[in-house]
Amino acid sequence: MTISVNSKEQTLEPESTVQSLLQQLGFAEKRVAVEVNQELVVKSQWNDVRLKPGDKVEIVSFVGGG
Amino acid sequence: MTISVNSKEQTLEPESTVQSLLQQLGFAEKRVAVEVNQELVVKSQWNDVRLKPGDKVEIVSFVGGG
Amino acid sequence: MTISVNSKEQTLEPESTVQSLLQQLGFAEKRVAVEVNQELVVKSQWNDVRLKPGDKVEIVSFVGGG
Amino acid sequence: MTISVNSKEQTLEPESTVQSLLQQLGFAEKRVAVEVNQELVVKSQWNDVRLKPGDKVEIVSFVGGG
Amino acid sequence: MSELFNTVKSFKLGSYTLRSRLLVGTGKYPSLEIMRQALDASGCQVVTVAVRRVEMGQKNAEGILDYIDPKKYIILPNTAGCFTAADAIRSARLAREGLGVDWVKLEVLADKKTLLPDPLGTLEATQVLVKDGFKVLCYTNDDPIMARRLEDAGVTSVMPAGSPIGSGQGVLNPNNIRIILETIKVPVIVDAGVGTASDVCIAMELGAEGVLLNTGIAHAKDPVAMARAMGQACDAGYYAARSGRIPKKLYATASSPWEGLIESVKRPETIPGE
Amino acid sequence: MSELFNTVKSFKLGSYTLRSRLLVGTGKYPSLEIMRQALDASGCQVVTVAVRRVEMGQKNAEGILDYIDPKKYIILPNTAGCFTAADAIRSARLAREGLGVDWVKLEVLADKKTLLPDPLGTLEATQVLVKDGFKVLCYTNDDPIMARRLEDAGVTSVMPAGSPIGSGQGVLNPNNIRIILETIKVPVIVDAGVGTASDVCIAMELGAEGVLLNTGIAHAKDPVAMARAMGQACDAGYYAARSGRIPKKLYATASSPWEGLIESVKRPETIPGE
Amino acid sequence: MSELFNTVKSFKLGSYTLRSRLLVGTGKYPSLEIMRQALDASGCQVVTVAVRRVEMGQKNAEGILDYIDPKKYIILPNTAGCFTAADAIRSARLAREGLGVDWVKLEVLADKKTLLPDPLGTLEATQVLVKDGFKVLCYTNDDPIMARRLEDAGVTSVMPAGSPIGSGQGVLNPNNIRIILETIKVPVIVDAGVGTASDVCIAMELGAEGVLLNTGIAHAKDPVAMARAMGQACDAGYYAARSGRIPKKLYATASSPWEGLIESVKRPETIPGE
Amino acid sequence: MSELFNTVKSFKLGSYTLRSRLLVGTGKYPSLEIMRQALDASGCQVVTVAVRRVEMGQKNAEGILDYIDPKKYIILPNTAGCFTAADAIRSARLAREGLGVDWVKLEVLADKKTLLPDPLGTLEATQVLVKDGFKVLCYTNDDPIMARRLEDAGVTSVMPAGSPIGSGQGVLNPNNIRIILETIKVPVIVDAGVGTASDVCIAMELGAEGVLLNTGIAHAKDPVAMARAMGQACDAGYYAARSGRIPKKLYATASSPWEGLIESVKRPETIPGE
Asked: Does D11 touch chain H (CB under 8 A)?
């Protein structure tokens, strides 16, 4: 199925969880935070939340800022 | 009947209009503006608007200000 | 004979006076002031003061200044 | 004989030296500097310089200053 | 010949076309007569008044208005003393009815101690009054963003405080006034904080369309002479702002020419800087 | 009625009694015609000129003087361009002879780069010129002690620089000007550094008797309009200095009364500051 | 012996007790290594970071965090780049989840040109985030009234801008900062506008609890040395603010005694001032 | 790695090589013990003392010197209290003899009221003392021309007053200090007028080699803590002056990146400035 991650198209297995998406992208072990359709998904739920086609996912980390 | 004018008690004839109140107080010919119960009463209606017991009337004029 | 006027060489008749120098240069009627060898020569003496070869003459007027 | 020390009268033996004056006043061992009649007398000469009646002596030390 | 020097420098404010860029308040003068003279000396065309209850039993309720010649001055009512949008809106409507004018100097203050404006109440009252047909001249702080919000809300003029009302500190933050002037299209009138003539002059030189003041004149030892000073300073600042001032330098350019100097007696070996 | 407002504000400078407190230089204007208009717009009565060699062969040597109406202006020659007391003294004497005036604006500069005055040369020239009968208006730095030495030497006016000539920085050290005004009895005229109208206004508000400037007008984009601004700012500062300005406060005093406010809709529980 | 001099000057900010009153941003350094050295040189304990999307395919997403030793520094996420309350709230929640901290430096900007804060959006976001359990350190303009509204809304710290972000103008309106400090009880931290060490020192002398800066260090030619300067200036200002500075006078009191002077050679007839 | 940050920042003054750029006076402390602690807290290496007559009959004439550890501090005698060149010269010679040092802080004051230096007496005394082998650290006004004359006369350091002695007004005319620093080669040390830490920081940021002060510490409510503040501010200013500060702008540059922002909920139609 196809979803959007950080505004870019991303295809992945149907029924994928947030956790599996992060693994696929290599961020599972990183210090990142995730939104699905503008709602925060806390780490403890990464395994439970399943993604649907068309979902908009934001994966963020941290950069220098003032 | 008794009403309040600028937070002071004022007794006047039942059925009095705003106009008659102003005449009684001597402001009918002055450059003043009037509120009854926090609603503006324009001059053209001074003769029509009748006061009820307990009405709160504000009569204002102008002073120096910056 | 030769003198210097405002640092430029100037030849004129021997025995010339300041007055004759100014006439020759066309400044006699102008609002100017004159020094000979760094000494002021007031207008009333222009006819009396005779110039000698090598004299250094300054003729000044006025310009815009703050 | 009588001299002036820091504008105060001071009597001492005739022929006294600067050194003996300082001893008499108790400043011989202190970090002080001496003028006689507004001329500096360096320490190495305290024994040689003899005071005369009426001499004006300044004895200075150091205080807090900015 | 100087264009500017000949141009009549009138400008549009609300429904009026004005020559004078100084707006003067009528509060706190030693006497109404001195106020009258001061207004005259200032050359102002717009004067502000406040709305207050009539004194019961006191027959001559107009007082101040008798001292303001309607042929010479346009009256601008204010909402001074209001700490809520609701009170300011009521005061504005009473003033419009009483004076028959369509404009108001909107003030919604946050507290009596600093007399600083309440940004939220000010914006709220502005939205209501503009919808109600008022031309709102809006007293505000010097924040360029609030100024923009007020312009978006339809004010007729943004009136940032140079410094707190009556503080006499002049324009404390010229940087903010500059940013406001860069971003706002309606007339910007510096209101409040003016202590002396140079404060007015500086506000105008920054590019303000005008200056509104009261205490600086009314509480001066000689209000009439200070009023004259304020009026002249306003004109001076207006012209200076438009005359292209010289840039600032660490130092220095001669105003007299270097050519044609008399020969120096003993020319100093070297003139530093040559 | 305001005493001050009615008083004719003339003052004595050298042999002259003047109304205008602005003295204007004649150097560096785009044209002599613009200079003439600017002098007129400024309202000044005293204009400065510099002494320079005539151009050989050029018959019309007066030039500038043709543009200065002797019925309207008093000419004050300067010694600009002199870097030694000796040259300044010679220039002063040539000027006196050429113009038939008894005063001079003394300038003895230290270098061409900063155009700052040379205190020692200035004092030396002052002593000679005063003995020689000149009324010396003396350009100097803003050091109160040098100002006092010059007064002791007999100058007619002390003219401290607000900032370097032509720098346009206004009065950089008001503290020094204040101390000078406290200690000097002869007229103090702020000379040099004025960049725009508010600089003049501030100098006058400090209590200066007058202001002398040139570049600020001559090099403005519109010299005539700037001249008008400078003249008005000088008047404004004069009146403001004498009108008893209000003190500066952190905040704030209301200009409208607190009494007689309409009853608040929902009076805020507590008005801060009450 | 000086009490103050011995007191450990730690203070409470949110959940933390801090020694250093300088908070430093991590943006725009020439390199991460120079950033690391600058943070160390500044002596700061709190550093800010921004929330941004991971770079797809770029495996090492943490980058900056690897250069911030968690044993030495507490990380304060900001909401920089947000122009609406909604985006700021989302960024704050993402940051809390990603970093496991309970505080945020809230920024809701009005536009990209001035980077000035949007007062309305800032207040709206504050109300939501405080209800959501955040400790909000709130970037705002220097308006004392907005500062009070934010305190009423429950912010942990009010962070007024000294001048616009990155403008390097220091504290443009000390008067407003003073009023804020008079009326606000939560820690006031001056945020933005710092250009050099004296700006930090002045902000602290006004009585601020701390200073937050970034560009002033990151864009200096030598960020590490400037970081050290900023840290020392912060300490200096802290002590100066609490040491009871001498009052300002026109002039002057001697620091050396008048007694015990040697007798003057030729005492000047009169010593002025005696 | 920052060169500057590692460089030991010692400099040469007279015969000495110094680390600390703060010179501190010893007058007017609440007690000698507090003075001792303040000198220690300031980190200074050079302390000034004044020459005065011994108290007749009072055996312990040294007093102050007992509280100045010769292993930690270099003593710099001054000529404070002298109003003539002659007295200053005598005081300098007495000091040299009494302390065995070859330098002196020369002060020739004009009057007791302003404590401003007398330019003429100062120059006269300088010429004599330099010929006599003294290293003269010369207190003067902030006139760049007098500074140059003193350098020509051979002073070891030019010490311009930031503002009058003890006035606490800091550097009133940075422009003059800048011009002095541009033209003078010997070390320039700002002397007098410092009121608080930021004044020291600003003087150093202007590029001064050092700062000398006394009253600002001695008369602070907590002299020891203020001494520490002054010392840190001096260091801070030293580093800031050499770190290449960011330029000042009307506004603004972001310290967080614009890239990688999360997608906005409801992107505002137009972001102003974009």
From this structure: no
Q: What are the φ and ψ backbone dihedral angles of G222, each rounded to 5 degrees?
A: -120, 85
E63: closest CA among E109, E26, E16, E96? Answer: E26
Read off the pLDDT of residues G180-195 as tens digits, 9 standing for 90 and up.
999 999 999 999 899 9
Task: Write out residues 24-43 of B within 8 Å (CB-CB) of E.
Answer: 25-27, 30-35, 38, 40, 42-43
Nearest Cβ partner for G98 among A5, A26, A31:
A31
CB F190 within 8 A of CB F2: no
Provide the b/e sequence for F214-238 (b: ≥16 CB within 10 Å): bbbbbbbebbbbbbbbbbbbbbbbb
How much is the pLDDT for E3?
66
Inter-chain residue contact C65 with E256, CB threshold 8 Å: yes
| C positions 45-64 inside 8 Å of F (CB) | 58-64
d(CA G94, CA G87): 11
Instruction: Name which of F19, F64, F69 is nearest F44 in CA terms.
Output: F19
Residue G225 CB partners (closer than 8 Å, separation 6+)? G41, H2, H4, H5, H239, H242, H243
Q: Is residue F252 a contact partner of residue F246, using CB atoms and an 8 Å limit?
A: no
| Active-site annotation holds for H105 | yes
Q: Which value, to the nearest 10 degrees, does the dihedral of the CA atoms of residues E187, E188, E190, E192 take?
A: 80
Rounded to the nearest 10°, the torsion over CA H145, H149, H150, H156 is 100
From the list E72, E105, E113, E185, the catalytic residue is E105
- CB-nearest partner of C63 from F50, F212, F213: F50
This prediction's pTM = 0.93
Q: C10-44, pLDDT tens digit by residue?
A: 999 998 999 999 999 999 888 999 999 999 999 99
- Rounded CA-CA distance F199/E197 in Å is 11
| Chain E (228-247) residues lying within 8 Å, Cβ to Cβ, of chain F | 228-233, 235-240, 242-247
Percentage helix, strand, coil, to 5, in chain G? 35, 15, 45
Q: Are E202 and F196 in contact (CB under 8 A)?
A: no
The span from the CA of F75 to the CA of F103, in Å, is 9
Q: What is the pLDDT of residues F233-254, one digit of tens each?
A: 999 999 999 999 999 998 877 7
Q: Are G84 and G108 in contact (CB under 8 A)?
A: yes
- In the DSSP assignment, the letter for residue G263 is P
C-alpha distance from residue F148 to each of C66, F151, F158, G59 (Å): 24, 5, 9, 76
- Tell me the CB-side half-sphere exposure of residue F112, using CA atoms within 13 A: 11
Minimal Cα distance from D5: which residue of H? H56
**Dihedral sign from CA coordinates of F63, C36, F85, F105:** negative
Count of CB atoms within 10 A of residue F21's CB? 28
Tell how far CA C9 is from the center of its chain. Answer: 12
Q: Flag if B66 and E78 touch (Cβ within 8 Å).
A: yes
In H71-222, which ranges are continuous DSSP H helix?
85-99, 119-131, 144-152, 174-183, 197-205, 215-218
Structural tokens at position A27: 């961020």
Can you read off the two tokens belonging to residue G20?
A: 């250093």
Please check the confidence at residue H212 and state whether its pLDDT lies above 80: yes
Average pLDDT of every residue of chain F: 92
Relative to beta strand H157-160, strand H135-140 is: parallel
ipTM exceeding 0.95?
A: no
The answer to whether the bond into F252 is cis (omega within 30° of 0) is yes
Parallel, antiparallel or unpaired: strands E74-78 and G189-191:
unpaired
Q: Which one of E26, E53, E93 has the shortest CB-CB distance to B64? A: E26
